[in-house]
Amino acid sequence: MSKYQLDSSPIYIEGTDIPKNKLDISDSALIHEIEQNLLTQAYEQFSSQLNKQTLFDESYFIRLHKKTFESVYDFAGVYRNVNMSKGESQFCLANYLQNESARIFNELKEDNYLSDIVEKKDFSTKLAYYQGELIALHPFYELNGRILRLYFDMLCVWNGYNTIDYTDVIMNGEYIQASIECVQYADTTKLEKIIFNGLEQRSLK
Predict the structure, then answer these.
(1) CB atoms within 10 A of CB 79
(2) Mean pLDDT along residues 148-154
(3) Domains identified in the chain, total number
């Protein structure tokens, strides 16, 4: 069964949690392997393109999703137009998604994409806030978490940090729990701790 509950327009192959794809793949392990390979390539591509003029606006966020997964999915880079939930978590209603997305990215722009923040603790707090907002927004049909982490990893690199190490917290379920608390309670406490612990400034060579 699908891992998400959608009001209409299901994107999954019937009876599975595998999205309909251009490769006609119905094997879960294989499609996940392809997704991971595409994501690895995206990290290399987008990190190599970062410069002082990079704008981390809504268009950039959408482009990450589109360019990473358009070879496999028709919905790459497309905001959903149906309501979506997972378990007890109700994501942003589709009717409000565009306005809420604009609000979040306008706030981030007003924060100068966090470039004025000096202390790691303050940076982690702000990053957790914006990541929590986008977790609750859940704008795409699929692959939200991975693109969201890619987006904020690029923002971290742009601000002089390494990419965030989520390895342990994804494996042990802490990241999922932190995400649930962002959606259900607007509480980013656990997420902030995860980001702080996984964040390191890049050493100058």
Answers:
(1) 16
(2) 98
(3) 1
Judge contact between 74 and 22, C-beta under 8 A.
yes
DSSP 26-87: --HHHHHHHHHHHHHHHHHHHHHT--TT---SHHHHHHHHHHHHTTT-TTTT-B--S-EEET
Instruction: Say if residue 146's pLDDT is above 70.
Output: yes
Averaged pLDDT, 21-36:
97
Nearest by Cα to 32 from 48, 23, 74, 140: 23
Return the closest-CA partner of residue 111 out of 146, 154, 155, 163: 155
- Domain holding 151, by residue range, is 5-198
- Model confidence pLDDT, tens digit, residues 108-123: 999 999 999 999 999 9
The CATH number for 35's domain is 1.10.3290.10
Residue recorded with tokens 């470039």: 115
pTM as predicted: 0.94
pLDDT given at position 141: 94
Decide if 169 contacts 195 (C-beta within 8 A).
no
Identify whether the C-beta of residue 190 lies closer than 8 Å to the C-beta of residue 79.
Answer: no
* CA 96 vs CA 79, 82, 109, 155, 171: distances in Å: 12, 11, 20, 25, 32
